[in-house]
Design a protein that fits this description.
Length: 188
């Protein structure tokens, strides 16, 4: 079973998923990880009093930290917004601008697939929320995004099935912030 949080890491660098899956390494996390945890904890507190009117969506119910699972994937979505005719999965990011990386988009698509099954409603959008005042941006999901998502999932399954240490095409800037940077002996 694929942990949805590993999808983003696989796109950042496939070796991260390899290390988590096949090696008994307890990495030292960079400081931004604890800052992200604090930000999420603050959002969980704010969730109790929020009405989400700012989104201007036909909301029926908002689920916070919803655990989702099927036979192939599992994970906890930050927010699942159930609207009249669709669901929108949202993620909190500890950043000032709503910039969506490819890894975050693939992760949100995975949550959307599971939330769609769970609530029996379609999805076509995802949302990124940043800052403490619900700054947000909604992104459309295209057919190209879904094709890319399938390719990523197939690549993850292939790596796990074959147990082959993957090539990394991560940039040096990515390697510098990686919690496993001391375990790749072919990277600078």
């Amino acid at each position: 079973m694929i942990l949805i949080s590993h999808i983003r890491q696989f796109i950042f660098c496939p070796r991260i998923l390899y290390f988590y899956t096949f090696c008994d390494i307890k990495p030292l996390y960079p400081e931004y990880v604890s800052l992200g945890t604090q930000y999420h904890n603050r959002q969980n507190e704010l969730f109790k009093s929020r009405k989400f009117l700012k989104f201007k969506l036909p909301i029926i119910k908002v689920y916070n930290n919803l655990y989702l699972q099927d036979l192939s994937m599992s994970g906890i979505a930050d927010l699942v917004i159930e609207c009249k005719d669709e669901i929108i999965v949202a993620e909190y990011k500890n950043q000032n601008k709503p910039i969506l990386s490819t890894g975050a988009k693939m992760q949100l698509i995975a949550y959307s697939i599971l939330a769609s099954k769970y609530l029996n409603k379609p999805f076509s959008k995802i949302m990124l929320i940043c800052s403490n005042n619900l700054k947000f941006k909604i992104f459309d999901i295209t057919n190209d995004d879904l094709i890319k998502f399938d390719k990523v999932i197939n690549s993850i399954k292939k790596m796990i099935d074959q147990e082959i240490f993957p090539h990394s095409n991560a940039s040096i800037a990515a390697c510098i912030q990686c919690e496993f940077k001391n375990y790749c002996d072919d990277r600078e």
